[in-house]
Every structure is written in C-alpha cells, then in structure tokens.
Amino acid sequence: MEFKLPPLLYNEKGNLRTVGFELEFSNLGIEESVGIILELYGGEVQKENRFSQKVVNTTLGDFSVEFDLTLLTEKGYKKVFDKFNLRLEDIKLGSNTLEDGLETVLESIVGKVFPYEIAAPPLPLNQLEQLEKLREALYRHQAKGTEAFPTNAFGTHINVETPNCHPSTLVNYIKAFLLLHPWLLQVGETDLARRMSPFIHPYPAAYTALMLAPGYQPDQETLIRDYHQHNPDRNRPLDMYPLFAALNDELISNFTGLGKVKPRNTFHYRLPNSNISKPDWTLAQEWNHWVTIEELANDPDKMTRMSQEYLSLKENTLLGFESKWAKRTEQWLTA
Predict the structure, then answer these.
(1) How crowded is residue 110: how many other Cβ atoms within 10 Å of its Cβ?
(2) Distances (CA, A) of 109 to 53, 72, 106, 128, 228
(3) Is 114 helix (H, G, I), strand (E, B) or coil?
(4) Which residues of 48-73 are buried (b: 16+ CB within 10 A; e: fewer)?
(5) Strands 116-119 and 63-67, sheet pairing
(6) Highest mean predicted confidence (pLDDT) among 28-32, 166-170, 315-319
(7) φ, ψ (nearest 5 deg) of residue 140
(8) Nearest alpha carbon to residue 67 among 79, 53, 81
C-alpha cells in the first residue's frame, strides 16, 4: 500500500511538511529494538538509562527507544527509597546492584501491561515508506501489538507538521477530525481495549457542538482556552496541546493537570491501533486515514454541509448516532 499525499504538501516556509511516527509494542526489549534500528539505518547509540536510549545520526535522523512508563524511564520508584536515605545504586548484589535487580523485577511485571515505544524522526511526507522497513522488522522479530492481548491498549501515534498555524486552519482540522471520528473508529477497527482505556477519550459532545456551530471563528487564544475548558487533559485521539504549547507556551504552562507537554508544531494524532503483529497491517493504511482528515479539512464547502447534517442528526437521534453517522460519512466520502 502506498502512502497518499495530502492536499497541502508544504509549510509556510515552502518546505515539505514532515511526519513522525511513534510505535508502541511489547515482547521486544530496549536492546533488541535498538539493534533493529542500527541494522536498518545505521547510527550511534546514546544510552540515557536502562529504559531509555537514543540511536542518533542514522540515515533518517535520530530515533528514541524507551519503556513507556515514567516509573522506570525517570526512575520514579527511587523516590520511595530516597525517603529512607537508601541509595539503591550503591547496594551490591553479587556483580549487580540492588537498583539493577529491582528494575529487572519491575520490568518483568509492568512489561506485560505497558509498552515499549520507538519514536522515529520526522521525515518529509514523501519519504514515509522508509519507515515500513522498521514496521516489517518489528513484525519479523515477533513484536506484539494491540491485538496480541486483551489489555494491550497500544497505539500508533502520528505527529503531522501543520501547513500553517492560522486559527482558521487549526479549526478546520479539528472540525474535520470531529466529523470523521465515528467513521475512523469503524474503518480503523479501533481495539476495544483502546476505546475503554483513558488514552483516547472522545471529545465531549459540548465541544463538538461548539466547533461545528456556524460562525465559530476564534482567535488563537480563544481557540486554546475553549479547547482547554472542554478538554483539560491530554487523553484525546487528536491531542492539540503540543501544538498549542508551540504557539503559546506561557498560556499552556498556566494550565494544571497536563503533565509534561513538549512544544512542537504538529498535530498529535493518537487514534490508530498498533497492530504490529498482524502481517497485513501497514503504517501506510493508518497514514492514509489521516490524509482523509486533511482532505476534508481543505474542503470547507463539504465540511460546512456535513457539519449541518451532523448537528441535525445528533439532535434527532436517541440511540445509535455513531453507527448512523459513520454510514453517512462513508456516503459523503464516496460521493
């Protein structure tokens, strides 16, 4: 399957827009994952700690590989022992330390629930096929994804550089996502574990109504404040906080409960599964679903008409709205 190109290829500086992928999986450790990257793309290893490493200066750029749990990557467990003045790294157990032994035990326990993650460097959107080599290698090495275990709420995150940061552009992308969300859940076969997890909670109905209402044309600060009022955490399938932090970091830093937000000029699309152990699954199919969002976002007339129908159907449907709208969306997209 080929990676489709979106309607807008370039950013405001005239450069090809870039895209970064984050892949979550289990059954492969940090060292083996790093080895796969080195074999495919070359580079040099920078070891931050046992659970977080980088592979820099590859043919594509810099990769990061880590265990997706701050308890281990940031050694949060040590805070408990610090209170008792115990330095785990100084207590010897044979040739290892107590810190090494404790981390081995913790990894064996939480490694069955929390994923490892490879974050690929941002690539020009006409070079994304180079990442299929990584996906294929992880499959060959028997990495396990969302479908491998009922509690695996693993995801594929796509960080898509914006074509520009005008408030009207950002509104159009959010509106397009909201209109397509029920269809995306269906066509992407979003796993039940992911739907039930806290990581991709749907946008509240009140926010959807606000965004799709005729005449909603906020300035940048109003857009950010409205978003935060209805979405006071990061757990949305389209997380806008990294982009908003890049636009107004001072405002975002005043919001509580968000945790660490890394400013970057990208849409943080978190909806797709990570079906890494399925032989016919590809990154291209997940990317192409995103391109459908891009296409709608850049068709304002269709988006206006769809918004009107969405709000009308929502108001007049007591049960089964999402399935009805997903079917109607399919008709809109194939018209």
Answers:
(1) 14
(2) 21, 12, 5, 35, 35
(3) coil
(4) eebbbbbbeebebbbbbbbbbbeebb
(5) antiparallel
(6) 166-170
(7) -60, -35
(8) 53
Q: SS3 of 160, please?
A: strand
Q: φ, ψ for residue 185 (rounded to 5)? A: -60, -40
pLDDT (0 to 100) of residue 23: 96
- Residue 58 and residue 43 in contact, taking contact as beta carbons nearer than 8 Å: yes
Cβ-contact 264, 284 below 8 angstroms? no
Per-residue pLDDT at 285:
97
Q: Residue 94: which residues within 8 A CB-CB, separation 6 or more?
A: none
Kindly give the interhelix angle for 283-297 and 167-187, rounded to the nearest 10 degrees.
130
Query: Using CA atoms, how far apart are residues 16 and 10, in angstroms rounded to an integer?
Result: 4
Name the percent of the chain in helix, strand, coil, to the closest 5.
Answer: 45, 15, 40
Question: Distance between CA 25 and CA 183 in Å, rounded?
Answer: 25
pLDDT at 139 over 70: yes
Reported pTM: 0.87
Long-range contacts of 131-135, Cβ-Cβ distance < 8 Å, separation of 24 or more: 131/21, 131/283, 132/282, 132/283, 132/284, 133/40, 134/23, 134/36, 134/37, 134/40, 135/23, 135/276, 135/281, 135/282, 135/283
Q: Where are the beta strands (DSSP E) in the chain?
A: 18-25, 44-49, 52-56, 63-67, 92-93, 96-97, 116-119, 123-124, 156-161, 238-239, 266-269
Query: pLDDT (tens digit, 9 = 90+) per residue, 279-310?
Result: 999 999 999 999 999 999 999 999 999 999 99
Burial of 174 (0-12, 13-18, 19+ CB in 10 A): buried
Question: What's the confidence (pLDDT) of residue 114?
Answer: 74
Q: How far apart are CA 230 and CA 240, in angstroms?
A: 12
- For residues 126 and 101, is the Cβ–Cβ distance under 8 A? no
pLDDT tens column, 47-65 = 987 788 999 999 999 999 9
**Backbone region of residue 189 per phi and psi (left: phi > 0; alpha: psi in -120 to 50; beta: other values):** left
Mean pLDDT of 243-269: 94
Give the whole-angstrom CA distance, residue 294 versus residue 71.
36
